Amino acid sequence: MNDINSKMPILLIGNSFKYEVEATLKLFFHTARFTFAEDPSAADTSSGDFAVLSMSEDGRELSAEVRLGDKYDCRSCTLPEGAEKKMQEHELCRLLFHILSDMTGILPPWGLMTGIRPVKKVVELIQQGMNKEDIYDRLSGYYELSPAKLDIAYATAANQLPILERIDSRAVSLYISIPFCPTRCSYCSFVSHSMASAIKLMPEYIAALCRELEITGELVKRTGTRIDTIYIGGGTPTSISADDLRTVMECVQRSFDLDSIREYSVEAGRPDTITEEKLRVIKEFGAQRISVNPQTLNDDVLKVIGRKHSGEDFIRAYECARRIGFTNINTDLIAGLPTESFESFRHTLDRIIELDPESITVHTLTIKRSAALFADGGDYTGNPAAEMVDYSINKLMESGYLPYYMYRQKNTVDNLENIGYAKPGFESFYNIFIMDETQTILGAGCAASTKLVYPDGRLSRIHNYKYPYEYISRFNQLMEKKEEAEECLKRISSIQQK
Question: Fold for domain 164-486?
């Protein structure tokens, strides 16, 4: 079922729970495709693999039927009268989950939890006054989480809470997108563009981005709000020249009041794009936090994933940043990269800890459809990602790094997670805010997303165009979307003035 060309038929009878059913299937078949039908005549279940998820007309009788190869199972349950749709969906997926777990021998560590923000659920329960034991009982019973994942989720929530308690939901953060990379990594699914193809658009892109920053700055001033954190990401922001980077950061300085911001980050990213000149520009214009990301220090693995730098290139970039005076550096690693062994990952993590960065983020390899790795159709069933992640949790916490933010993605190897660790006092506010969704984040640039958080808790998103040529050519049309952002900021500002 992990054959990328296979399409397992899924028949939904008496229900339309496609999204959550597919998410449950993806816990077991990361890269498989599915066809969904509600009409029995439209789904071929006469041969091959299939699943049938049924619900009676009164919503009480549920059943799941699955065939995988020569294995077949069918299970059912009865819900109490008046069961809500959410319970119907959850219990139907639970039937499917247990059938697939028994058939495949896979027990997903996050159980039935398919959402990307597991820590947010823990935080909400703590804020409701529940103690640790009750939270564990609630989540292990409802989602069937493993004890280890409960532990890491609770620890992350506990480290987030002091920061969340100091959050000013009346302030806003700013995300600036520079969606270019020197080359595209084989695991990457982000909307990023190689410098070779984008270079001719660069002057127009930088000009449009600066104009959007100016318009956003005017909006912030006009509504009486303020900027709390700034994050320049991508892509790889240091893919552009030092002069272009200076132009963008000068525009930020000119357009926004930086005196009150609590955090200014730049995703320097790939070591092969980092120069002393660019680092000095970043520091000159007030960014305190940067990321220098090796992913691995194994040169052979770096070649496999399409990186053009070596482990030593990372060391040189990191040491250059220290010489220039950066005292808040993050490094990103990826567990489960193709051809990487557990021993290789352990060596990388141990060496990074020796370098003593202020924060270390451990991602788990995710196989996205738009990534080259997906097209290769590789078999990742023997990938030691779980062993790597377990080692990183123990090693980093023993070394004084505490988990402070976490998120999950679909199609992640072994259904694992991405965790940011930091020394106490070096947690990234922006990373917490974007996961907790309690502060408005204004996005500027190609493929950036604005996330509006209204005072009543309502969320709304505004998406910029994905491609540079579209962002440039339809810029005026895009700016019309700022009207919704202005309305939200006015409401935030009115609370401040009370």
Answer: pyruvate-formate lyase- activating enzyme (3.80.30)
User: Cα angle at 468 between 408 and 207, to 5 degrees?
Assistant: 115
Q: Rounded CA gap, 425 and 413, in Å?
A: 31
Beginning with the edge strand found earlier in the chain, give each strand of the sheet holding 418-422 in spatial order: 402-407, 418-422, 359-364, 329-335, 289-292, 263-269, 227-233, 172-177, 440-444, 449-453, 459-463
For the record, the structure tokens of 66 come out as 């699955």
Q: CA-CA distance, 382 to 46, in Å (whole number)?
A: 32
Q: Which helix (H) or strand (E) holds 403?
A: strand 402-407
Q: Which residues pair with 71 in a beta bridge?
A: 68
Domain 7-104, CATH number (from 3.30.160, 3.30.70, 1.10.20, 2.40.50): 3.30.160
pLDDT tens-digit profile of 328-385?
999 999 999 999 999 999 999 999 999 999 999 999 998 755 445 444 545 555 689 9
Indicate the pTM of the whole model. Answer: 0.92
Question: Rounded to whole angstroms, how far apart are CA atoms 25 and 34?
Answer: 9
